[in-house]
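Escalated from tier 1: nicotinamide-adenine-dinucleotide holo job.
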Amino acid sequence: MPPKIFLVGGLGTIGKRVTEAIRKQNDMDILGVGDIKRSRSFVNYTGQQLASEGVDLYALPDKMDLFREAEIDPTGTIQEGIEKADLVVDATPGGIGEKNKPKYEKAGVKTLFQGGESASVAEVAFNSFWNYDDAKGAQFVQVVSCNTTALCRIVYALKEFGVKRVRGVLVRRGGDPRQVNRGPINAIIPKHHIPSHHAEDVKRCIPDLNITTVALKVPTTLMHVHSLNLSLEERVTEGEIIEQMEDTTRIIVATEDIGNTAQIVEWARDMGRKRYDVPEVIVWPGTVKVEGNEAFISYAVHQESIVVPENIDAIRSVLEIEEDRDKSIKKTDNALNIRDKLTF
Ligand code: NAD
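Tier 2 regenerated the structure:
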C-alpha cells in the first residue's frame, strides 16, 4: 500500500497544488486535506472541488458545521488526520507550522514544513538537487521558499563551471494574485537589510556557497525575477551557460518572444496549464552575458508552483520510497508534465 499523506493547510495556494501533485504520483496517496475555515466561499469552492473529486476533508472540531454548511461532510478532525497519516505536509502560513509542530511531535509523524517557517523548525532544509539524501528518514524537513528553490536550481545547473561567488538582486512580487490585502500598489520596497534571508536559506542547502542577496518588492502578482552576477572558476561562453540551463530539468530557456513575466503567464494559459502554473524556472537567453570569469543571468520564478516538485521529492526522500535522487526527480517530472522547452 502506498504511504498516505495528509495536508494541513491543504486548501491554500501551496497546499492545494501539493495535494493535486501527490494524486498524480503512483507511489504515494493522499489521506486527506485539513484546513481551518477562513470564509464560507473559500471552503465552498476549493473544498467542494476537492471533495467532488473524492478527496477527504478534515476540519477543526468546532468548525465541522461550517464545512457542512458548505455541503462538505468532514471525514474527521485535523488531529485525527495527523494521527492516521504516514507523513504530514504542513502548508499553513509562515509561523503557523511551527505552532503546529507539537501536534506532529506528539503523533510521532514525519512532517514537511514550507519556506515561510523559521529555519529552526526542521533539521534539514530541502532542495531536490542538493540534498535529497540528507532528508532520508528525517522527522522534520523544511522545503525551502520559492526564491531559495530557484537560486538552488540555477547554482546547481552551473555547478560544473565552479561557482565561486553569487551576488543576486531578487525582484519579488508584492503578493499572490488572490492576496488583495498585500502590496505595494504604487511603490518599490527594498529590503533594508543585506543579505536578505534568501542567501542564508541557500547556504542551508549549499553550505560552502559564497552568496549575498538583496531583495525588493514590486507591484506585480505574477512572478518574481532574479538577476544574478556569478564568479566562475572556469572561463565559459554564453552558449555553454545556456546549454547547461537547457540540460538541467526544471529550468527552461525561453524563446525570444517570451521576454517577460506576462508573456510567460500567457504561454502557460495557452498551454492549458491549470492555474497557469509554471513550476520550471524560466531563463531569458538575452540576459546571459559573460565578461572574463563573471557571468550575468536573469530568470523568472512562479512563486505559487515552483516548490511543488520539491515537495514531492521530499516526501519520497523522507519516507525512503525512492533511494535514488535522479529517479525521484524523473518520476516527479513525468507525473507533473515538467517540460524542457517552451516551444512544442
Ligand atoms: P495560504 O494562506 O494560501 O494557505 C494557507 C492555508 O492554511 C489556508 O488555506 C489556511 O486556511 C490554512 N490554515 C491556516 N492555519 C491553519 C491551521 N492552524 N490548521 C490548518 N490549516 C490552517 O498560504 P501559502 O501561500 O500557501 O503559504 C503556505 C506556506 O508556503 C508558507 O510557509 C509560505 O511561506 C510558503 N510558500 C508560499 C509561496 C507562495 O508564493 N504563496 C511560495 C513558496 C512557499
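The mean pLDDT is 95.
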